[in-house]
Amino acid sequence: MLLLVASLIVGHAAISDPQLAAKATSAWTKVQPSIVIVSRRGAPRGTAALIDSQGYFITGNSVVGDGQGLEGQFFDGMRVTLFLVTVDGPTQLALLKTYDPMGDRQPVSLYAPGDETVNADHPKTLIAALPGGPISAELVNIKTLALLSPAHSVAMLSEIHFELAQSKVAGDPVFSLDGLLVGILQATLADKTRVSTSTNIMQSASGSSVFGGGGGRAAPMLPRGAVARPYGPGTMTIAYSPGPQTMQRVIGGFLSPNHAVQRPAIGVFCRDAVGAGALIDRVVDNSPAAAAGLKEGDVIINIEGSPIQRQLDFAVTMLQQTVGSEITVTVRRQSRLIPFHVKVGM
Amino acid sequence: MKPRDEENLINLAFGELSEEEATRLEQSVRANPKASRALSGYERLKKDLVLLKDIPELQISTERIRGAILGQGLKQRNHAARWGWILVPGLAAALMFGLMLNRPQSEPQNQALQVVPFKHPVLVVKNDPNPVVLMNTEIDPTNVGYSFSPDRSPRRALRSDRHAHRSRSASRRPESQLSPLDRNVMQHGITLNSPLDQVSPETSPSPQTSPRTSAVADSMSPASPTNQRIVVVNDEKDKATGAQQATEVNSNANVVVGG
Fold first, then answer.
1. What CA–CA distance (Å, rounded) separates A86 from A66?
2. Lower CB count within 10 Å: N or C terminus of chain B?
C-alpha cells in the first residue's frame, strides 16, 4: 500500500524540484500510518490525526458532526470505532478516541516554528491529508489575527494556500515536509468571485491523489477528466488553521486528564474605545474581573506593562497570560487611572 | 446636531478633551447613533490625513492643462474684462474707504472679525488688520465658523482650513500645491457649506497645513496595528469546502472581543 501511495505521489508530482517531491513523499510515508479517514454513518467526512498513543485523534468538528456512528479507517485498511470526547468551542477542534487495537502506530508530532521565517515570500510547503490522499499546500503565514465568531475570541491562525480549486477540506490535518502536524483546516476564505467548479479535482474517481506544485512554479498534474485551470485566485483555496501556539494549547488541553483547553481570560468583553484602549462592554458575573472590581465603561489601557491601544490588543495580550497567574490591569475610569490585580481564569 | 456638539466631537476625535470630558462624551456618543457616525467620520478624517501624499507632477494631467488652454483660447475675449483687474480692486478700495469713514470709533480694536449684514454680495478687504466682511443678509452670520485671529488653536485652525479653503484652494490651485487637507477633501468629496466660501474669495491667508495636521501625520504610521488585516471566522459553513467561512475585514472598531 505504501509503495502504491508513493508511486501515486511521484506519478502526479508537479513539484518541480525533485528533492522537494521526494521530501513530500517521505513525509506522507511517515505520517500516513497515523491518519484515519473518518466516516460518519458510513460516509467519509474527513481525516483525523493520531496525537497520543492511547488512541486520541484530533480533527475538525465539521468532520464529526453529532459524534454518532463514527468509524475510522487507516490508509492500510485497518478499521477502528471512534468516539467523540470533546470539542473546543472557539477553535472547533474535536478530540476523538478509539479503544480498538491499532497496532504499532506512533502519534504525530506538533510543528513548532520557533524562529523560522514563514511568510508569503518564503512559503513552507505542506501536505494536506484528505480522505482521497495527500495534496500539496503552502503555509504563507502563521500569524493571521482572527476573530472567532460566535465565541468572540481572538486567535492566531495559519494561512494555508492550495493550488487547487475548493474541495471538502474542513477538519483535515496538514503536515510539514518533516512530517510534523502544522494544523487542522478550520476555515476557508469566502470569495464570491471565485470560479466554482463542479469537478472535484483533488479527488478523482479512481481515488488517486494529486500533488500540486509549490508556489505556483509548476502546474499540477490532474486526474483524468479533471478540468485544468490556471494558477491564481480563481482556482486557489485559501484556508486557515489554528496557529502553532493555539494548536499546542488545544492539544495540551485535550490530552490533559479532563480534556479541557485552558484559555486565559478574566471575564470581560471589550470593544474599541474612542481614543485609545479597550472599552469594557460587559463584565461576566462571578468572573475574575468582576471579583477584582472592573466595571462596564472602564477603559483598559495597560495589562502587565503592555499598552492596550484597542480591543484586539487586549485580546492578544490576554492570550499570552497564564491561567492562575495574577496580572495588573490598569483602567481609565472617569479621569482616574486605576490598577486592578486580577487573577487569570479560563 | 448642534455646532457645539460637533465641535466637541471634533475635539474628541483629535484627542483635545480632558480625560473626564472624553469619558463623558464617549458614553453619550455610544447612545447616539448619529453622533457615533459623525465621530467615526472625524476619526476617519484624522486617519486619512496621514495617507495623503504629494501628487507627482506627472499626475497633473497634461490633458487637463491642454483642455484649460483650449477652453480659454476658444472663448471670445471680453475686452472689457481686460481692465477688470484694476476695476475690481479699485471699486473695493473705494467702497472700503467709504465704510471706514462711517465706522464707529468705539469699536473694539481687537475684534477679529466683524460681520456686517449687507444686501448685495460681498466684498472683503485684503490685509486689513480689522477686516470687515460684507455679507448677504440671507446668510446666517452666526454660522460663519471662521476666524482671522492669529492665535487660533490648532484644532480650530484645522476646522477653519477645512471650511475656508475647500472650494477656493482646491479648485484654483494646481493639485501639487494643495494642502493634504484639501486633497483629502477633494478625494472624499466632503461638502462643507461654509458661507465664507461664497463671500470671501480672496481674503483669507494662503492655506497652510495646520500644525494639527502635521502632528496627526507624525503620530500615525501605516504600520500601526490598527491597519493590520484581520480575518473573521463565522459559524456559517462554506458549502464547497465544508469549513467555516472566513472573511477578511479592514476595520474591527465595532467588534466585541472576549478575554
1. 11
2. N
Residue A188 touches chain B, beta carbons under 8 Å: yes
pLDDT digits (tens, 9 = 90+) for B39-84: 888 887 777 665 554 544 445 555 666 666 666 555 555 555 566 6
DSSP A53-91: TTTEEEEEHHHHTT--SEEEEETTS-EEE-EEEEEETTT
Query: Is the minimum CB–CB distance between A244 and chain B shorter than 8 Å?
Result: no
Domain ranges of chain A: 1-261, 268-343
Query: Across the strands, what pairs with B249?
Result: B230
Contact check, Cβ <8 Å, B19/A332: yes
Contact B243 A62 (CB under 8 A): yes
A302 and chain B: CB distance < 8 Å anywhere? Answer: no
Q: Cβ contact (<8 Å) for A332 and B247?
A: no
- Per-residue burial over B132-146, b if 16 or more Cβ lie within 10 Å, else e, is bbbbeeebeeeebbb
Q: Is A185's CB within 8 Å of B243's CB?
A: yes
Residue B204 phi/psi, 5-degree rounding, is: -65, 155
CATH class of the structural domain A268-343: mainly beta
pLDDT in tens, B229-258: 688 888 888 877 788 888 887 767 677 888
Q: Which residues of B touch A166 (CB under 8 A)?
A: 238, 240-241
Contact criterion met (CB < 8 Å) for A185 and B247: no
* Cα-based angle B98, B102, B108 (whole degrees, multiple of 5): 120
In Å, the largest CA–CA distance within chain B is 84
Buried b (16+ CB within 10 A) or exposed e, B211-245: ebbeebbeebeeeeebeeebbbbbeeebebbbbbb
**C-alpha cell of A99?**
479503544
Question: A133-148 and B230-237: which strand pairing?
Answer: parallel
Note the ipTM here. Answer: 0.76
Task: Give the chain B residue whose CA is nearest to the CA of A202.
Answer: B241
Nearest CA among A150, A158, A156 for reference residue A118: A158
Q: How far is CA A167 from CA A5, A123, B42, in A?
A: 20, 22, 44
Q: Which of A63, A64, A142, A147 to mutate to test the interface with B (most CBs of B within 10 A)?
A: A147
Q: What is the pLDDT of residues A1-14, one digit of tens each?
A: 444 444 444 333 35
CA distance B13 to chain A (A): 7
Query: In the A/B pair of chains, how many CB contacts fall below 8 A?
Result: 169
Q: What distance in Å separates the CA atoms of residue A40 and residue A52, rounded to the nearest whole number?
A: 22
Comparing CB atoms, the residue among A148, A153, A275 nearest residue B15 is A275
Determine the topology of domain A1-261 in CATH.
Thrombin, subunit H (2.40.10)
Per-residue pLDDT of A82-110, as tens digits, reads 999 999 988 899 999 999 999 889 999 99
Cell numbers given for A77: 485498511
The SS3 call for residue A282 is strand
